[in-house]
Amino acid sequence: MNSRKNKDCRKQKKNTPLQDKPFGRREFLKGAVKAAALGSAAMVSGCGTGLLGSSEEDSLRWKEYFKKHYRLMTQEEKDETVRRLERLARLRRGVDIQMSSKGPIERVLFGYAFNLTRCEGFMECVAACVKENNLDRKSNTQYIRIFEMEHGEMSPASGNSKYFHEVPVEDHFYMGVQCFHCEKAPCVKACPTQATYREPDGIVVVDYDWCIGCRYCIAACPYYGRRFNWNEPYVPVNEITKKQHYLGNRMRTRGQMEKCTFCVQRTREGRLPACVEACPTGARVFGNLLDPKSEIRYVLKNKKVFRFKEELGTDAKYWYFID
Amino acid sequence: MIKKSPGKGLIAFFTDIIRWNLSGGIVYQLYLCVLAAFMVLGVYAYFVQINLGLSATNMSNIVSWGFYISNFTFLVGVAAAAVMIILPAYIFKDKDLHKVVIIGEVVAIGALVMCLMFVFVDLGSPLKAWHMMPIIGIFNWPTSLLTWDVIVLNGYLALNLMVPAYIVYCHYNHRKPDERKYRPLIFISIFWAFAIHLVTAFLYEGLPARPFWNNPLMGPRFLASAFAAGPALITMVLVIINFTTTFKIEAQVFNKLRRIIVVSAIINLIMLFSEIFKEFYLPTHHSLPAVFLYFGLDGHNSLVPWIWTAISMNLLGTLTLAVNPGRNNPKVLFPACILLFLGVWIEKGIGLIVPGLVPSPLGEVVDYAPSWVEVSVTLGILALGVFVVTMLIRPALIIEERFGVEQGT
Amino acid sequence: MKISAFKTGLFWILFLLLLIFSWGYAFSEKNSVVEIYKNATAPFDDEKSVDSILLIPDNTVPVETKYQGGFFWTETRKDKIERFKCSECHNNKDVKIARAAEIAHGDIILDHGGQDKPLSCYTCHKKDDRNFLVTEEGSKIDMDHSYQMCGQCHFRQKKDWVGGAHGKRVSYWAGTRVVKTCTSCHDPHSPLFEKRWPKTYSPPLVN
Predict the structure, then answer these.
(1) What is the CA radius of gyration of chain C?
(2) Cβ–Cβ gap A42/B37 under 8 Å
(3) What are phi and psi of A167, to 5 degrees?
(4) How close A133 comes to chain B (CA, Å)?
(5) d(CA A179, CA A203)
(6) Exposed, middle or buried by CB within 10 Å (0-12, 13-18, 19+), for C162?
């Protein structure tokens, strides 16, 4: 009798854990395997279609993934990475580009001035910048913003940047805003990996491949000077500007920051940035601040100049003046 | 004392933990399944985000930080709040709180894991995260505050893992842990807890570009709200433990926690009032973010119902806990803590990040609401956090109870 | 015991103060950009520093006024005038083509000087030598050097144009300075820029 009872008890005890274990463990393991599979699939897809592309492309991308920060590279390493990127552009997009790794010119500090009287809101600069810098057409990224402002207030907050009508409108003036290339740039200070930094010729650049996309720099910038690639940027192949610079207008991918570089691919060759060259009214002045005979020095000496949000102490190299 | 045999070793420790964690009643198994389901949802949504880029979220160049960073900010506070139990337990040798200190530390670990995950899913190029590591990458310390944050968060995670693990492992092996080994680490972790939340606050406080954040009260405010919301969460966890396990918690514990919460919550409300006064007494252009948050700006008022709900919940929760109508009855404490916790979550999460970024530096106003991807990934990470806490608390409590019985306490 | 504790405390306070001051000094070392450029008085040799090829456009003339860096060039105008030389029609011979004025100059809209003091053709064009422009005193100005004539009234703009605050440089910021002349941008008969639609627009700022 007793043994029968005990048998029953033991059976009961055995049953409950058996009931619980398969239900709990199996479900959990299923979920874990699913998660692991999805996770690894995500990682692989995140790497791109590496498994489907050619092996040359894979080996180039492998080398690109492990490369150093551009600033720490020797000139040979810079030339190597530039060659790899040119080759990748050929393999991926079928485009032949010329990428430069040219360094800064000695004794040059770039400065910029914007003539508030002369700007008529034509936005030729915006269009030229988009074309020159291979900006994403899908998200309509624009480094330059033009504000149509009513007389009486100087703050872009009171202006309208989304205008699209005949310009100039009476009793309005136009103010262009872009990255001001601050000497004491808050974005440079904020970046945890030093992906964005100030080059010796004064421009603040981003090593796109070093950027991890944390976007602290956007929070730090007081001028809305920086853009993030939220999606994979798209430029029609026939519109790609082929003369590129590693720090400038080369094609970026999603997850990287980008910004105005004062057209480093042009300015280091002695050419004017695209916005300055495109402006039909000559409202933009660009030059070498360390050259006493430059136009920018003339403007700073003879015109009443001011900088945007000067009280924040960013020491920008972009001045506004009124004729 | 009967000499107990020395421990069964590290491998047995881990196998026992896994065994304890996977066994339980049907409700527990279902609970694990629900967590697993949310985690799978989160992974799937993250997979979508990896493919599309961060455009799968509703963040933009103006609202460049959104739901992920909101939750990160709030959870760092929850993690720091463990100090509010550690401090009385170890410095003031409070026996009641000493009993539940392990739960506080485990909640901190769960919160920290969630914080690190939120930062990870927010990155645009997560595969390049190694760029931020010292030696193999570039670690921009001490200039960038994000690097300080990385150090303090990982350090606090390490501290909160090591000390309880050592104590619990000793208890598992039926012996008392050597206090000299972990007491200095406890002291360090007390200061470190303040550090993690101050550094996270400085992340925002140090940006003159964002006038809503650029005020000296951010640091203290973060601490006050953390020490209100964190112990509230711990109270909720304790209530759950009290009702679902054999680990019983006395009313004094709840009373002490309640007092800590009430003091912090009142300080938090005073600081909130100070901020509101500064913004609205003589409003400047710098007050526009606060106007956007509390009243809406140019027709954009998506955050208005949220912030007012949050403040009401905060006030109601604080009042209930202060007046204590239920005399520490968990059935009254639990909803009051939920109210307070949710109120602080909204106010310190989305109610802090989005107004800091809107209006943009050029004055443009946009709305923000998280997309399904962001919500799913968040749910997945929250489920992961709860999962981690469960996985750590269950064996810890089993071991603690067993050790308590052995010691005759 | 008390004294040594005091000494230790004092030592730490002094050490911290030293740390703070040295940090502050490190921060104050960097000059502002305004100081930097004001102190940059040494001449900048474009030819030596910039090693790229800086192409000078073909049709340029040296400007007769020097700027702060010496000589500079400007774009020519004569090659852009369709029917230059003007003296091919404007001579002592009879005009044999019907409606010649309309054909040759029909596209000119004269809107210069406003409603109060509008300019007439002979304000700028030399009556007896149509290949040239004329100043108030009556001296001849070559069409390629129209700035000398425009600069009579628009002397502020001319000063700024010479210095660099008005007008535009052609293609390069470095090297030989070539700038656009007045007529490169302004139609001399109707110099105010016409209203037009912008080249592009900024879409709403949502993702």
Answers:
(1) 30
(2) no
(3) -125, 160
(4) 18
(5) 10
(6) buried
Report the topology of domain A110-322: Alpha-Beta Plaits (3.30.70)
Tokens of A239: 């519109």
Structural domain range at position C52: 46-185
Contact A213 B54 (CB under 8 A): yes
Structure tokens belonging to residue B22: 């996977």
Helices B304-323, B330-348: crossing angle, 10 deg rounding: 150
- Find the residue in A nearest to B212 (Cα): A219
Strand partners, C67: C70
Structure tokens at A31: 């979920």
- Asked, for residue C202, whether it belongs to a domain, the answer is no
Instruction: Please give the ipTM for the structure prediction.
Output: 0.92
The length of chain B is: 409
Number of domains in chain C: 2
CB neighbourhood size of B334 (10 A): 18
Spell out which residues of chain C touch residue A140, defining contact as CB-CB under 8 Å: 202-203
Q: Which residues belong to CATH 3.30.70.20 in chain A?
A: 110-322
What number of CA atoms fall less than 13 Å from residue B67's CA on the CB side?
Answer: 21
What confidence tier does A235 reach under pLDDT thresholds 50, 70, 90? Answer: very high
Sign of CA dihedral C186, C190, C194, C199: negative
Q: DSSP string covering B101-146, please?
A: HHHHHHHHHHHHHHHHHHHHHH-S-GGGGGGGSTTTS---TTT-HH
Is residue C19 included in any domain, yes or no?
yes
Q: Which subunits sit against A, judged by 3+ Cβ pairs under 8 A? A: B, C
Total-model pTM: 0.88
Rounded CA gap, B273 and B256, in Å? Answer: 26
CA distance B384 to B110: 8
pLDDT tens track for B274-293: 999 999 999 999 999 999 99
Co-location of C113 and C59 in the same domain: yes
Please give the Cα distance from A177 to A155 (Å, whole number): 11
CB contact under 8 A, A195 and B50: no
pLDDT digits (tens, 9 = 90+) for A22-58: 445 665 565 566 656 555 555 554 444 445 557 888 9
Answer for the pair B62, A161: CB distance below 8 angstroms, yes or no: no
Which strand (E) or helix (H) includes residue C134?
strand C132-134
CA contacts within 13 A on the Cβ side of B12:
7
Instruction: Tokens for B50, please give them.
Output: 């990896």
- Whether residues C71 and C129 share a domain: the answer is yes
Which residue carries 């995500």 as its tokens? A42
Q: Where does residue C99 rank: exposed (0-12), middle (13-18), buried (19+ CB within 10 A)?
A: exposed
**Start-end of H helices in B206-303:** 218-244, 251-281, 288-294
Q: Are A262 and A182 in contact (CB under 8 A)?
A: no
Q: C16 and C118: one domain?
A: no
To which residue do tokens 């492998």 refer? A62
Taking a C-beta distance cutoff of 8 angstroms, is the pair C140, C67 a contact? no
Domain assignment present for residue C109? The answer is: yes
Task: State how far the Cα of B40 lies from the Cα of A34, in Å rounded to an integer.
Answer: 7
Which residue is it, tokens 């009051």? B336
How many other CB atoms sit within 10 Å of the CB of residue C176? 16
Interface of A with B in 117-136 (CB under 8 A): none
Over residues A248-307, the pLDDT tens digits come to 999 999 999 999 999 999 999 999 999 999 999 999 999 999 999 999 999 999 999 999
- In whole angstroms, what is the distance from residue C157 CA to residue C150 CA? 9
Residue C177 lies in a domain: yes
Query: φ, ψ for residue A274 (rounded to 5)?
Result: -60, -35
Residues of C in contact with A279 (CB under 8 A): 168
Q: Which amino acid does the sequence have at B98?
A: H
What gap in Å lies between CA B16 and CA B394, rounded to an integer? 11
Interface of A with C in 9-68 (CB under 8 A): none
Q: Kindly determine whether residue C207 and residue B55, on different chains, have CB atoms separated by under 8 Å.
A: yes
